[in-house]
Amino acid sequence: MSLTKDEVQHVAMLARLELSDKEVEKYTTQLNDILGYAQRLQALDTANVPPTAHVFPLQNVMRDDCVDPSMAREKILANAPDEEDGFFRVPKIV
Amino acid sequence: MNNETMQMERDFDFEIVMGLEVHVELHTKSKIFCGCTTEFGGDQNTHVCPVCLGLPGVLPVLNKQVVDYAMKAGLALNCEIAEFSKFDRKNYFYPDLPKAYQVSQYDLPIAKDGYLDIEVGGNPKRIGITRVHMEEDAGKLVHGGAANLAGAEYSMADYNRTGVPLIEIVSEPDIRSIEEAVAYLERLKAILEYTEVSDCKMEQGSLRCDANVSLRPWGQKEFGTKAELKNMNSFKALQRALEYEVERQAEILRDGGKILQETRMWDEAKGMTISLRSKEEAHDYRYFPEPDLVPLVISREWVDRVKATLPEMPHVRKERLVHTYGLPAYDAGIITGSKAMADYFDSACKAFGVDTPSGVEADDKAKERAKQISNYMMGELTRLLNASEFGYLNSPVTPENLVGLLQLLEAGTISTKIAKTVFEDMFATGKPAKAIVEEKGLVQISDEGAIASIVRDILTANPSVVADFKAGKEKAMGFLVGQAMKATKGKANPGLVNKLLKEELEKL
C-alpha cells in the first residue's frame, strides 16, 4: 500500500492545512515511510483476535445523572479570540 | 404487485423511496459526558464547562441514564441490544462543534435491527429500524448581520446545547410515500413519548427529522440517487418539504436529467429545499474509536432491568380501549396516539368509576360512560386545546372536571346543549361544571308542570302553526319545540318538551 500525492492533498484539506508542492512531496515520502513500517503488522495472524476497542482493560465506566455547576461565563470566554454579548464570535462560515 | 401499488403507479410516474433519520434529545438532567444541566434556554454559554467545550486535558465520563434511555428506546422499537458497544469520534470542522469532532457511535451502536408498525389508509405496514445510536448534540449558531447563514458577515456560538445527549434513530429505506413518512414520524414520536426518554418537543428541537429521498422508475430494483433533507422542524414542514422535493426530483428525471447526491435544507419561508453542499466534496468523517471512553459491555440482566421499565405501548393500549370499552378503532387510535391524551382518558375513566382491568370487557353502562368521555375529548376538548396554548398535559379542564360535567348530563341536571356552553366556560375559567351551572342558573327544567304551562302558552300564541301540524305538516313540531327551548333559554329538558307538546296537541 502506498499513499499518493492526491491522498496527501485530500488529508491536508480535511485538516484545513495548506501545503506547498514541496511539502506535499516531503509528507508523501514521510507518511509512506510510516505506513511502510506499520505494514509489518500485516505479517501477524489476527484471524482469531477481536478488534481492539480500547487499550485499557476497563469497561462500563459511568457516572450518575447529577447536575454539577457549570463554569462561569467570564472564565469560559476569557480565552476566546473574539466574543460578543456572551457568545463566541466566529468568522464568516460560508 | 398488489392493487394499492398499481393504484399509486397510475397516480405518479415514479416510485418514491425514503428513509428517515430522527435525532431525539434524551430527557436527562445532565449532559452525556459532564455534569452541566440540559435545561432548555438559559443565557448563552452558561451551561458549559471544560469537558463539553473539549478544552485540553479533560476526561468525559458517560452518563448512565443515557445508556438506560437509549436501550429503552431501542427495546420499544423492537431492536436487538448490543452486548458490546463503543463510542467513536466523527471528525469535521464547524463552529457549532467546539472539539472539531462529535462523539458518536459508528460500527457498534447500542441497538440495531428493529421495526415499527404504521398504518396508512387502513393498511398496516412494517418499517425497519436499522439502528439506534448514542451521540452528543452540537451547539447553536446565531448569524450576525443576516437572518440566515448565507448572508452572514460573522456568526456567534452558544454552546449550552453542546453535549446534550441524543439518540439517532435510522430507518431502513422502506418508506414509499409521503403519508407513510408522516405516519412513521407520528408513531415514532408517540412511542418515544410513551417511554418517556424524551419530551419530543419539535418546536424546541428535541425531536428533529432528516429524510433521505430518492425516486426510481416503477419496477426498477436499484435505488435512484438520493438527496438528504434537513431542517424539517414540524410535521407540516416534513410534509411540505417532501412534497416539494419529490416533485423537484420528478421534474429533473422527466427532463432526462440526473439527481445530484447532496444535502438540501428545507426553507420554511420560501417553501422550497435549497442545496447546502455536494456530498462528494464534503464528507469524510475519519471515524475512529474514542480513546477517552471505555467500551460498554451490556449484560442480559441489564437489558432485562430496562425492559421491565417499558410501559404499555400505543398499539397495545389502543387494543385495550377497543376491547375493554368498545371504542371504535379510529377513536382509540387517536386517543392512544399521544401518551398525554391516553393518560387523560384513563384518568377520566377512573374518575367516572369505569376503569377496568386490561383483558376484561366493561359492562354496557361503563362502555357508555367511556364513550361519552371519548366523544368529549375527540370533539370539544381537542378543538379548544388546539385553539389555545394548552395541551392534554395541562388542560384547563381536568379529567375529574370533565367527568363532573358528564355526571350532570347523565343525571339530567343540564341539557346537551347547555353542557356545551358550560364546557366552554370550564375551559376558560378552570372551574368545575357544578359551580358554573349554579352560578349561571343553568339547571335543566325537568318540572312537568312548569314545562306544560310553557307549552300551552306557545300553542296559544301560534294557532297557525298548530293548524299546520293538524294538517299533517310534521315540520311544525320542530318549530314548536324550538319556541319552548327559546322561552326557557335552552334549559327545558328536550325530551319532556317533546312529550308534553305531543300530549297537549292531541288534546286540541
Distance between the termini of chain A: 36 Å
How much of the polypeptide of chain B forms β-strand, as a percent range? 15-25%
Quote the distance from N terminus to C terminus of chain B: 70 Å
Mean pLDDT of chain B: 91
Task: Provide a count of the helices of chain B.
Answer: 18
Class derived from helix and strand content of chain B? alpha+beta
Instruction: List low-pLDDT spans of chain B.
Output: none
- Helix proportion range of chain A: 25-40%
Specify the number of helices of chain A: 3
**Largest interface pair:** A-B, 36 and 52 residues
How many extended strands of chain B?
17
Kindly report the average pLDDT value of chain A: 92
**What is the CATH topology descriptor of the domain at 1-44 in chain A?**
Histone, subunit A
Global outline of chain B: elongated
What do you see in this structure?
The complex is a heterodimer of chains A (94) and B (508). Chain A has 94 residues and is an alpha+beta fold. Chain A contains 3 helices and 3 strands, in the order ααβαββ. A two-stranded antiparallel ribbon of chain A has the order 2-3. In chain A, β2 and β3 form a beta hairpin. Chain A is flat. Chain A starts with a helix and ends with a strand. Chain B is of the alpha+beta class and 508 residues long. Chain B is 42% helix and 20% strand. Chain B has helices at residues 3-11, 50-53, 64-76, 178-195, 235-254, 279-282, 300-307, 314-325, 329-336, 339-351, 364-386, 399-410, 416-429, 433-440, 448-461, 463-470, 475-487, 494-507, and strands spanning 14-25, 62-63, 80-81, 84-85, 88-91, 101-104, 111-120, 123-136, 140-144, 154-158, 165-171, 207-217, 227-232, 262-267, 272-278, 288-289, 296-297. The A-B interface holds A 10, 14, 16, 52-56, 58-71, 73, 76-77, 84-94 and B 28-30, 34-37, 43-50, 53, 61-67, 84, 86, 91, 93-95, 108, 141-142, 144, 149-150, 152-159, 284, 286, 289, 291, 293-297. β3 of chain A pairs antiparallel with β10 of chain B.
